[in-house]
């Protein structure tokens, strides 16, 4: 399978009950995902609660993750921000040892124009020590990277190799798939619609649900990539309710609860995020039992 085809998992960051990073649980999570057959891992994306981590914590987590993965699968670092100069400096200072690419979300809160988004990524492309995967997630950032801007970036910078596309906008996807360079990767950033996105030409997914169900989800994605959509449909339908519950009370609260129930790590989050409700706990546990 080609690089970054298949299932990547945006890993949670396990915390101890006192809120400190739980490195024993992080090692257990990494092994759980690799043993589950995923193709690559993403460290400190949004799902990793990166917004609540200090620079020193991020540095330590990046180093620990690379050492634990030990080249068993591809590894992507999440480095993003809404201050372009600071984000570029963070990329320049990043120790790329053990990493294969950087995932960088479009600036949040500022709501830049399309030209502003282009110039932001132009500056990052000049600073990045590794290939960049763009990340379009307007539900979190407040603005969207339109198809024209993505195609422009793909054509202008050889080290911008793909996009994690989580807009859910199929009109945008139609245009992007039609106009993008042949080797530019479109990766689903939205678990529930990964199957139809692959049918349109996406090369896989960067998943949240895959934290809890790495084997089930990666098997489904591989079937899709082989063109066996009929075979993939059964798996897709079987996890619809579980997937809905993972996001019903915010991410990564749902998937951390699932991981706790599976014995992988605890469900502690850092404020302003809080654990799921008692009602959601029971529904998530029931779904895990049904999936098996």
UniProtKB/TrEMBL annotation:
Superkingdom of origin organism: Bacteria
Listed Gene3D superfamilies: Aldolase class I (3.20.20.70)
Coiled coil: none
Keywords of this entry: Amino-acid biosynthesis, Cytoplasm, Diaminopimelate biosynthesis, Lyase, Lysine biosynthesis, Schiff base
Record-level GO cellular component terms: cytosol
Function: Catalyzes the condensation of (S)-aspartate-beta-semialdehyde [(S)-ASA] and pyruvate to 4-hydroxy-tetrahydrodipicolinate (HTPA).
Protein name per Swiss-Prot or TrEMBL: 4-hydroxy-tetrahydrodipicolinate synthase
Organism lineage: Bacteria, Pseudomonadati, Bacteroidota, Sphingobacteriia, Sphingobacteriales
């Amino acid at each position: 399978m080609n690089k970054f085809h298949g299932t990547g998992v945006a890993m949670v960051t396990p915390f101890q009950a006192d809120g400190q990073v739980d490195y024993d649980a992080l090692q257990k999570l990494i092994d759980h995902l690799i043993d589950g057959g995923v193709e690559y891992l993403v460290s400190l994306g949004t799902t990793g609660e990166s917004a609540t981590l200090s620079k020193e914590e991020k540095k330590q987590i990046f180093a620990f993750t690379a050492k634990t993965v030990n080249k068993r699968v591809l590894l992507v670092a999440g480095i993003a921000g809404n201050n372009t100069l600071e984000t570029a400096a963070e990329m320049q200072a990043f120790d790329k040892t053990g990493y294969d690419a950087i995932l960088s979300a479009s600036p949040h809160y500022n709501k830049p124009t399309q030209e502003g988004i282009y110039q932001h990524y132009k500056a990052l492309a000049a600073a990045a020590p590794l290939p960049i995967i763009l990340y379009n997630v307007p539900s979190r950032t407040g603005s969207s990277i339109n198809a024209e801007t993505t195609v422009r970036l793909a054509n202008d910078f050889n080290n911008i190799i793909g996009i994690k596309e989580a807009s859910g906008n199929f009109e945008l996807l139609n245009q992007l798939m039609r106009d993008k360079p042949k080797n530019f990767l479109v990766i689903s950033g939205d678990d529930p619609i990964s199957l139809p996105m692959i049918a349109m030409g996406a090369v896989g997914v960067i998943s949240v649900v895959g934290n809890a169900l790495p084997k089930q989800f990666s098997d489904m994605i591989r079937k899709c990539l082989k063109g066996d959509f009929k075979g993939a449909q059964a798996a897709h339908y079987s996890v619809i309710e579980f997937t809905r519950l993972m996001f019903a009370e915010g991410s990564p609260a749902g998937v951390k609860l699932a991981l706790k129930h599976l014995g992988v790590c605890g469900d502690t989050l850092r404020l302003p995020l809080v654990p799921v409700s008692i009602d959601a706990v029971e529904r998530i546990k029931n779904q895990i039992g049904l999936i098996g």
